[in-house]
Amino acid sequence: MKFVSFPECSLDYQDYTPCTDPKRWRKYGMHRLTFMERHCLAVFERKECLVPPPEGYKPPIRWPKSRDECWYRNVPYDWINEEKSNQNWLRKQGEKFLFPGGGTMFPKGVSAYVDLMQDLISNMKDGTVQTAIDTGCGVASWGGNLLDHGILTVSLAPRDNHEAQVQFALERGIPAILGIISTQWLPFPSNSFDMAHCSRCLIPWTEFGGLHLLEINRILRPGGFWVLSGPPVNYQNRWRGWNTTVQEQKSDYDRLQKLLTSMCFKLYNKKDDIAMWQKTSNSSCYNRLAKPDAYPPKCDDSLELDSAWYTPLHPCVVVPDPKLKNISLKSIPKWPERLHVAPERMSEIQGGSASAFKHDDSKWKVRAKHYKKVLPALGTDKIRNVMDMNTVYGGFAATLIDDPLWVMNVVLSYSANTLAIKHLCVRYNCIRIRSKYDMNVEKMSPHLFMPCSFTTNSHLANINLYDLQACKPLLTPNRQKILNKATPIVPTISDACFASAATSLSESYIDK
Fold it and tell me: Pfam families, from UniProt (predicted)?
């Protein structure tokens, strides 16, 4: 057996973010905040060391208590606390950060804000709206609150002057990834979310030909809702606090409404600081986009709408595929029936079928029971944040749906694109990670557990020690990674990275 030891990185690297490293931002353009996008290191620049936890790190507080508080030393960021404490984003008290549920646009608290949204969108109460994305999430209080309502929300934010919005979210046990709508598509498939939300997220929706809003249109399914609170909504009463004029805000609102109408969105409801638009399911509106004078125009049929991996934003409207009759929000089963029904888009995947989906569902029910024998903490409050690093149809996540955890499904950039089949799924080259932000998931995610479904005939059979070493920054101390099915790499796992112990069951290895 070959053992390789990796040195520990210095404490200067405890917050090292190679793909979104502020020290490298000057190398990239300021236009449309391009410097905040992923800019990963060349192979020869990568660090081959183990990223340490923050000084004074403590075992994370368990869910659901973690939603309301976390240890300060686990996320020792003071700027956001000093700047946003007056808005009740968070508050430092002794050794902890507390999250009272406030926000810039919900001074009465996130619960009252969500209650108002539910009054305006009844579909949020009956299992119709199930997946949501929060762009510019702050500390993810909106997404955390929606979990109480059975709505799975991924919170999205860049690494910016707020320091660690995503880090706070993951420490709280709320689904989140680093990201920004800038020049590239987000790593999600088309028609994947039932709702998109922006609460004073400061995204310039009507600039650059509406490119940012066109991306929201791409990832939002027909019948889905786009919710905006903040400028220019309620400009008649709010303009004085926005350092602008009422005329400028009215003009911004009119431009926004015109752009949304041209993209086949209709104003659904509006009250106080919240406005919501619904993406139409009516094909007649999309047919008009094919006219030569339409702007934005309809995207070309040759465009791969689910590629989502370093794909540039396109100045065109992604329209629903007319061959898919049951893709709209009103056509799909309500939650939780939706979880175990093969999506219509299964037919678009090579080898995909309803029977393959059902087989995957059944297989993971058996396999998850096996995992829980190997790792009794799985399915308890000891493990909250989970990443399936090589998901196919999402059966692992579906099997654990009733457990107190959430699963980030990852589809490899070079594997069959099954993104559109799953809930909360991203497209990444997950094994070429070198630190937490390569995967857009933070290294100190509480209770992170990785089921890695590696098979001997896959690309992953050729991964090496340094690829496995890169997994460690994503795991909190004393957390687990499971390799499902033995591959040639298992006997060479470094004990400096993980203390390996093969289980008595032949198909799994567990590393801590």
Answer: Methyltransf_29 (PF03141)
